[in-house]
Each structure stands twice: as structure tokens, then as C-alpha cells.
Q: What sequence folds into this?
């Protein structure tokens, strides 16, 4: 465990309900997620964070956002959970390297969080609900942990808003395949537009929706985005799942990945999409 002040959460390692994570834990995915920051990814809830808060980050991935949240609460603490032991170990190493001592990481299940009821001020989830078969059930679990008036803050992409120029039908096909796989896995790639409905259905109050965008329009950002997606077209769990479902095959994915890279090399290329963001009260 990285950090020594997470005791009040009283977390026990839980059995994890197995859902299929569409992105997989391919190195290119983990590296990309590890570049995310709290300053960007949690900006929509920053105004509600106080220095003494206890925050649960569900699911924390490689821990870059989680460690950033910990810097926001120097008199508080943050715990991150993830279903993959290897990713939890990765996040712990990051926290140790950064010297962040008010953060901890545990293996856990978002449907059965083993924390004391009413022990958390804020539950934060970035790009999580789009991957869950039962997002409202997970949100209800979050509510059970929150203190009265505590905050839930969720952010998810909306793949249906993705747009790019110059238009390339192969990129449309690339994300058509992804959408089919995500839905077959029980997820909802257009989660961003559904967050408000899910939060309301879970029984939260005073829900507020905002949106933000990610834009890739510089040589470096376009290359990053193309690398992130085309990198999955080689050996990865994603490719295995694509072939298992019969929605495409390794050859087509490789061809589309190469096309994505070629598109990204154009000085005119632009890719952008929206995220939905909701903050609400227990």
C-alpha cells in the first residue's frame, strides 16, 4: 500500500465481479491513461473539493489522476480501486515514486465496495460508467458510502460525438468496430449523454451536467491519439475479443490502424469529441 493515512476507509480486498474491459490493459492503453491529470480530468469538480476531504477514486487505473486528487486534499486522503492487480501495483509504484503519502490503492469491485458506510466525502469516477453493464447499480453503491450531502463526480466520453477531418471512412469503420465490441461487452460507448439520467435514476439530488472536449489538432496530439488506437491492432486482448465476436479480424484491424496513422500525419487533421460530466449530492 502506498501511503499510510487511508485507514478510516477500512477497505478489505473484495472479490471482483468480472466484466470485460473493452480497452484491455495493453501497454499503450496504460501509458496513455497514466498521462492523465486531475487538473484536466477532474476540473469539473475542483470547486467542491476541500483540503480535508476523503475521496474514493473508482476506478483509478495507473493512478495519475488519483495522485493529483491527493495533492488537492493535503489534510485528507484518497483511495483508488481497480479490478486488476497489475494496475493496482503500477499505481502504488507511481505514488511511492512521487512521494504521495495520503493515497492508497486496493483491488476492489465497484458493485461491492468494502468501505464503511458514510465514510467518504466524494466518489470520483473517470471513464468508468461507459464500461459497466449496470452503471446505475454502481452509482447506488457509491451513494451508500457517501456522507449526507457528499458528492459524486462522474465523467465519461461520448463516442457518438466523435468527429474528424479530413473525413476518412476507415476511421468511421474503426470506431464502428469498437462500438460493437463495447456493447457486446455490456458497456455503453455513448455514456456521456446518459450520465445525468443514470445519476438521477440512482437517487442523487441536485445533479448538474457540464461538457468538455478533447481535441487533437497538433502533430504531437494527433500522433498520440493515432498511436493509442492503432496500438491495439496488434497483439492485445481487444483483438482477441474482436475476433471472438466476429465483428472484424486481425487483418482488417491492422489495415485500419495503419490508415489511422497515415491520417494523423496530415497537417490538416483534426479529431474531437465531447465528455459528459455530472456532479450531484447524496
A:
Amino acid at each position: 500500500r502506498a501511503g499510510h493515512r487511508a485507514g478510516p476507509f477500512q477497505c478489505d480486498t473484495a472479490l471482483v465481479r468480472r466484466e470485460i474491459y473493452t480497452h484491455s490493459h495493453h501497454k499503450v492503453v496504460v501509458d496513455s491513461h497514466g498521462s492523465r491529470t486531475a487538473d484536466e480530468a477532474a476540473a469539473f469538480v475542483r470547486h467542491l473539493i476541500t483540503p480535508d476531504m476523503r475521496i474514493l477514486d473508482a476506478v483509478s487505473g495507473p493512478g495519475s489522476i488519483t495522485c493529483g486528487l491527493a495533492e488537492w486534499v493535503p489534510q485528507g486522503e484518497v483511495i483508488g480501486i481497480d479490478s486488476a492487480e497489475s494496475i493496482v501495483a503500477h499505481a502504488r509504484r507511481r505514488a511511492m515514486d512521487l512521494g504521495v503519502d495520503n493515497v492508497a490503492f486496493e483491488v476492489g469491485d465497484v458493485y461491492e465496495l468494502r468501505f464503511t458506510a458514510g465514510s467518504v466525502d466524494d466518489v470520483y469516477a473517470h471513464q468508468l460508467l461507459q464500461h459497466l453493464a449496470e452503471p446505475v447499480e454502481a452509482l447506488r453503491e457509491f451513494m451508500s458510502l457517501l456522507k449526507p450531502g457528499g458528492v459524486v463526480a462522474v465523467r465519461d466520453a461520448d463516442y457518438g460525438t466523435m468527429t474528424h477531418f479530413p473525413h476518412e471512412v476507415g476511421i468511421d469503420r474503426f470506431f464502428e468496430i469498437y462500438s460493437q465490441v463495447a456493447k457486446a461487452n455490456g458497456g455503453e460507448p455513448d455514456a456521456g449523454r446518459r450520465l445525468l439520467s443514470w445519476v438521477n435514476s440512482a437517487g442523487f439530488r441536485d445533479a448538474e451536467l457540464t461538457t468538455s472536449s478533447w481535441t487533437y489538432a497538433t502533430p504531437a496530439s494527433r500522433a498520440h491519439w493515432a498511436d493509442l488506437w492503432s496500438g491495439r491492432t496488434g497483439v492485445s486482448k481487444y483483438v482477441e475479443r474482436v475476433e471472438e465476436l466476429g465483428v472484424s479480424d486481425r487483418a482488417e484491424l491492422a489495415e485500419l490502424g495503419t490508415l489511422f496513422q497515415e491520417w494523423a500525419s496530415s497537417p490538416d487533421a483534426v479529431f474531437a469529441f465531447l465528455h459528459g460530466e455530472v456532479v450531484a449530492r447524496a
User: Anything to note?
Assistant: The first strand starts at residue 54 and ends at 58. Residues 79 and 104 are 5 Å apart (CA to CA). The first helix runs from residue 27 to 33. The chain has ten helices and eight strands.
